[in-house]
Amino acid sequence: DADVTQTPRNRITKTGKRIMLECSQTKGHDRMYWYRQDPGLGLRLIYYSFDVKDINKGEISDGYSVSRQAQAKFSLSLESAIPNQTALYFCATSDRGQTNNEQFFGPGTRLTVL
Amino acid sequence: QQQVKQSPQSLIVQKGGISIINCAYENTAFDYFPWYQQFPGKGPALLIAIRPDVSEKKEGRFTISFNKSAKQFSLHIMDSQPGDSATYFCAASLNDYKLSFGAGTTVTVRA
């Protein structure tokens, strides 16, 4: 979805390096999410934010941190990357005003930690 | 521990056939059950969703069947087409915010 963009799209890094994944959206949504996708495990929630001052841990937040710089920007950081953080990472947004919480996903970032 | 269990992991169907994907959940407080479709190289996108007060919802060739007492729901893809080849995720949520996803099912439709 072009309304939700993620950078970089692919990244290879080494164990112990700090890395930041960025997400921007032009949908005007207040809620933003970070997920990781692993084969056989589906999508697991890392962090979510309902507005700039409201950030919450998801089910697998250990080893990750986030920053909501503005309503439209939500970044995910790996302070010291490890190989088992190799995965496909997705950012998503949703609108609090919608009753069905449809989430709109970005194209993903493929991260490889060597 | 996954809150939504999805099966099968993958399936192959002939063009024109029916694809069936099943999901089961434990938390009876879940009140919203969407299905997301993901094509290779893309993010997931909402396909169809149902609430527990309805037993079935149909949109075109896609139907959700919901069994509240069994805590199960399924996606049926009728008249499957090669363009339906994708990964499908079931999910469940409480109070319309956090989604718990199943592990995903890769559907391949053979022409």
Number of strands of chain A: 11
- Percent of residues in helices of chain B comes to under 10%
In angstroms, what is the radius of gyration of chain B? 13 Å
Number of strands of chain B: 11
User: Hey, roughly how much beta strand do the residues of chain A contain?
Assistant: over 45%
Number of DSSP helical runs of chain B? 0
**Secondary-structure element sequence of chain B?**
EEEEEEEEEEE
Number of helices of chain A: 0
Shape of chain A: globular
Question: What proportion of the residues of chain A is helical, as a percent range?
Answer: under 10%
Give a quick account of the main beta sheet of chain A: strands, pairing sense, barrel closure.
Answer: 7 strands, mixed
Assembly type of the chains comes to heterodimer
Mean pLDDT of chain A: 94
Q: What class, by secondary structure content of chain B?
A: mainly beta
Q: What is the gyration radius of chain A calculated from CA atoms? A: 13 Å
Structural class of chain A: mainly beta
Q: What ranges of chain A have pLDDT less than 50 throughout 5 or more consecutive residues?
A: none
| Most extensive interface, chain pair and sizes | A-B, 25 and 23 residues
For the record, give the distance between the C-alpha atoms at the N and C termini of chain B, rounded to a whole number. 37 Å
Mean pLDDT of chain B: 95
Structure notes:
The complex is a heterodimer of chains A (114) and B (111). With 114 residues, chain A is an all-beta fold. In chain A, 0% of the residues lie in helices and 57% in strands. In chain A, the strands form 2 sheets. In chain A, strands 2, 4, 5, 6, 9, 10 and 11 form a 7-stranded mixed β-sheet that branches. Chain A has a 4-stranded antiparallel β-sheet with strand order 1-3-8-7, with no helix packed on it. Chain B is mostly beta strands and 111 residues long. In chain B, 0% of the residues lie in helices and 55% in strands. In chain B, strands 2, 4, 5, 9, 10 and 11 form a 6-stranded mixed β-sheet that branches. Chain B has a 5-stranded antiparallel β-sheet with strand order 1-3-8-7-6, with no helix packed on it. In chain B, a hairpin with a 2-residue loop joins strand 6 and strand 7. Chain B is globular, with a radius of gyration of 13 Å. At the A-B interface, strand 5, strand 9 and strand 10 of A face strand 5 and strand 10 of B.
